[in-house]
User: Fold Guanylate kinase from Paractinoplanes ferrugineus.
Amino acid sequence: MDDDARPAARLTVLSGPSGVGKDSVIELIRARSPWIKLSVSVTTRKMRDYETDGEHYHFATRQEFQRLIDGGQLLEWAEFAGNLYGTPRAQVEGWLSQGRPVLLKIDLQGARQVRATMPHAQLVFLAPPSVEELKRRLIGRGTEDEETIRRRLAHADEELSHEKEFDRTVVNDFVERAADELVGLLGSSFLTPAQAPEH
Ligand code: 5GP
Assistant:
């Protein structure tokens, strides 16, 4: 099999510090580039006001999450700021076997697991324009209590230091520009919309 035909080469991971704007970038891609398949993760975290179960995440209890781990149903999973997050295996593998470009929004620990199990995956780091800007965004988000913000700020410095583990960096200076750049990365090594099967 040549490289272009390897299903795993179609998996792209988007990672980056909490508050960098991964959700906004993903929202734009969801609206404008429907041929890109977005994996919906499972999480034990509380649902935010603007979120919909099954669209932003599948919200689950710890017990339900543990059953998914035990059953080998997660491609990767990690604990982040006291909550569990994981990628359901079946849907991602199904899309990949159909040759669809798939995008995962996961944390660093998850990105490392994907790197280990799918060496052909493309790992993209979404970086803030500056550390100060990242901290401003995290504090200003207003969706979390003080303790959660404190944990996320502490984790952000740690996450920023791992940029070098990624294949590419996209700077989220303007969300539309960053989304376009990411779509370009997905498109450059994958099927074009015209070639992609009907979705
Ligand atoms: P949030 O609670 O802000 O939605 O996400 C917190 C962190 O969990 C983010 O860095 C996000 O990328 C990560 N995350 C979301 N889904 C997954 C997943 O399925 N697996 C892993 N490893 N991390 C995830």
Summary: The domain at 3-187 is CATH 3.40.50.300 (Rossmann fold).
